[in-house]
Amino acid sequence: MACTNLTTMWGVSSNPSLSDSSSLSFRSVLNPLPLPNHNSSPSRSSSVAPIQSSLRELRDRIDSVKNTQKITEAMKLVAAAKVRRAQEAVVNGRPFSETLVEVLYNINEQLQTDDIDVPLTKIRPVKKVALVVVTGDRGLCGGFNNFIIKKAETRIKELQGLGLDYTVISVGKKGNSYFLRRPYIPVDKYLEAGTLPTAKEAQAVADDVFSLFISEEVDKVELLYTKFVSLVKSEPVIHTLLPLSPKGEICDINGNCVDAAEDELFRLTTKEGKLTVERETFRTPTADFSPILQFEQDPVQILDALLPLYLNSQILRALQESLASELAARMSAMSSASDNASDLKKSLSMVYNRKRQAKITGEILEIVAGANAQA
């Protein structure tokens, strides 16, 4: 009786051992490496499940990269369309600015022998400097905002090294948020440039600058903005805004004239089904100023009226160039992002196809091994 039970128990327990040996031989076909002697079901499920979840994650990531690429392509085209209008605004405003320079120059020539006092051209010892920092309202434009902010930080350290006081007039949402997070930097006013700068936005900046300089709260005003050079290049620059040059020239902090003589205009076209850019360099023609022109009013009154007007035009020009630089930087950044998304999509697709092929090969081997085990 005891022997019978023992034999029965042994017979029952011998079946799992046979199944274990068959499972070991089956696994040895899939994996040549030695495996521990335990039940194969958990091992098989643990080896298959990560591959299935990995494939699912790869599919989701590929779809996410595709959607991101569509967004960056759309933002690139929008920025490309807007940068053209921003360029035209800069170029169309240049004849007015140059003609105004000619008028100021001729009036100044007539007043060389007179002892006049024009507040905006009065040079006095510098004790405090106002920095007008022009940034963008949006991100996703590469290092555009960081470059001008770093330029402002460098200039602030230079003024501190010279022992001069300073205050900041921030123009642009990105600059506003930066200076708000740093209360130790004195800021006189926070302003917004807008999506398309007009004379109204420039006048708001000019009024604040004018009041600070006329009231002698500051002795010098410097304008920090990003100068538009081309679609792939922009330069953070510092211009002396006040005191104005009697000739109406745009000068840097060293007194050198930095008026641009030529412009580069860009036209977006399609070539072989792809978006391309054509460049055209030209010089804006300006009508000659007549030397025999006579003024009906007193030249001092005309000069007092034209200098604030030219101050407004300088600020408007800076806002327009900053906007054109921001849009060009965004177009370049979105183009790079689209290219990176395309490369990432290709690499992820290769990994996905390899893992999917490995999974299919593993399933075929399972079928073949099962058929051999039953034979």
What does this molecule look like?
- By secondary structure, the chain is an alpha/beta fold.
- It contains six helices and eight strands.
- Helix 1 (2-30) packs across helix 6, helix 2 packs antiparallel against helix 6 (299-374) and helix 5 packs across helix 6.
- The radius of gyration is 36 Å and the shape is elongated.
- The two termini are 38 Å apart.
- Residues 1-53 and 257-268 have low confidence and may be disordered.
Helix fraction bin:
55-70%
State Rg. 36 Å
Residue stretches low in confidence (pLDDT < 50, at least 5 long) are: 1-53, 257-268
Strand order of the largest sheet: 3-2-1-4-5-6
Mean pLDDT equals: 75
Q: How is the main sheet built?
A: 6 strands, mixed
Number of E strands: 8
Count of DSSP-assigned helices: 6
The secondary-structure class comes to: alpha/beta
Residue fraction in strands: 15-25%
Order of helices and strands: HHEHEHEHEEEEEH
- Rounded to the nearest angstrom, the distance between the terminal CA atoms is 38 Å
The gross shape turns out to be: elongated
Topology:
Elements: H1 2-30, H2 40-110, E1 128-134, H3 144-161, E2 165-171, H4 173-180, E3 187-191, H5 199-214, E4 220-230, E5 233-242, E6 251-252, E7 263-271, E8 274-282, H6 299-374
Parallel strand pairs: 1-2, 1-4, 2-3
Antiparallel strand pairs: 4-5, 5-6, 7-8
Helix pairs in contact: 1-6, 2-6, 5-6
Brief write-up:
By secondary structure, this protein is of the alpha/beta class. The two termini are 38 Å apart.
Characteristic key phrases:
375 residues, disordered N terminus, two-stranded antiparallel sheet
